[in-house]
Amino acid sequence: MARSRAAYEYTEAEDKSMRLGFLLIAAGLLSLLGLGCCWLRPALQERGGGGSANCTVLAVRQLGERFACTFSCGAACRGTARYPCLQVLVRTSRSSVPALLHEDERQLRTNPKCSYIPPCARDDQENSENVTYKQKYWKEKVGSQPFTCYFNQHLRPDDVMLKRTHDETVLLHCFLWPLVTFLVGVLIVVLTICAKSLAVRAEAIKKKKHL
Predict the structure, then answer these.
(1) Are residues 26 and 102 in the same domain?
(2) 119-134, pLDDT tens digit by residue?
(3) What is the SS3 string spanning 2-47?
(4) Which structural domain, as residue segments, surrounds residue 141?
């Protein structure tokens, strides 16, 4: 009995392999739980009730109101500048009610009144020029041409997005890599146990032949 127990004792290398496997299993599970609670669940809620539609520009305008943004000019240099508010009103193929277009969900959360937030420059005039360039783009280059937009009737029925921050590829990677980590950990543990079991059986067969 003591010999059998001793035979199944793991070597230092096998013990390290088992620890690595269990560590990967724990890391995969914790990653899945963390992403599910902190990121994946809110992302799926944003996508719930949403879909794509064809959008057509109705009006492009600048409001008189200006908004503040924060620029960085070095490691310890930060400041505040201002930019004009550009609004792009569109009509979707799902509804006849005009909707306000936004770049993506992040821009919508940052400034729900405007359709575009320029890269923040120290000079207010540069920010205004960037907004004016975007205004000309929507008026002259896009015009009345239809384009794909995204909406969420439950969360923001009066707003549409030009692109999604949380698309299918991002969601897939958030689920895939923790799962791969978990499966690799399981594989290491199983292979280590199987290799040890085969080694013990081979040793037992060898001893029987010598008897």
Answers:
(1) no
(2) 998 899 999 999 999 9
(3) HHHHHHCCCCHHHHHHHHHHHHHHHHHHHHHHHHHHHHHHHHHHHH
(4) 52-165
